[in-house]
Amino acid sequence: MEIHEALYTTRMMRRLRPDPIPLDTQARILDAAVRAPNGGNTQRWHFLVVDEPDLKRELAQLFRQGRAVEYEKFATGAGPMAAAAPGANLTQHAETMRRMKGSGDYLADHFEEVPLLLFVFAIDDLGGANIFPAIWSILLAARAEGVGGVMTMVLRNFEDRVNELLGVPVAEGWTMSAMLALGYPRGKWGVAANRRPVQEVSSRNRWGTAFGIDVPAPLWPHDYLAPAVASAG
Length: 233
Hints:
Layout: H1 3-9, H2 23-33, E1 45-50, H3 53-75, H4 90-109, E2 116-122, H5 131-144, E3 148-152, H6 159-166, E4 175-183, H7 198-201, H8 227-230
Antiparallel strand pairs: 1-2, 2-4, 3-4
Helix pairs in contact: 2-5
Organism: Mycolicibacter nonchromogenicus (Mycobacterium nonchromogenicum)
Pfam families: Nitroreductase
Keywords: Flavoprotein, FMN, Oxidoreductase
């Protein structure tokens, strides 16, 4: 897959088919992950895959409880994503949250059917500086394999119980960064059309000064090397 197709069409997929992901596919995805840049090449990460049905059922109960906790916060205007970003369209934000809740509800209701759960752990990660490039590599590599996924931190609401279930050696300093639900998607891939354009979220040299060029529409697939944009650099 061409790199720009992967970058432009990889999105969070919460509606996943139960079809198993072959082991060789899983290996390719994680082999890409361990090539991700990380500070000092210390590789302070661990990837734990879960496909055991009984374990997934226990995690599903925790996941549903965790979502209830998150949406209680959301209903009171607390927690991440409750408020729109400065300058964002409030109507569009509300619609995005409505759609995200719908797909999130589907994931919660069908959690036991997700073929592969991937827990990502790190040690002393400085806010995710080392692990999140690896997570993005996982999602891009999965996209190249036709596998969809979504990163979620919902289970961190019950981190101690999850650590117990998974046998995590927390005394060594391992901390759950996130969990990814992976599977072949029920939906279609596509370029995200609801993004604010580059010039609205970018500045040059000082906050609030013009970036210097407008990008009114996605540049891939047709205009990625448009002369006016290519010459801007």
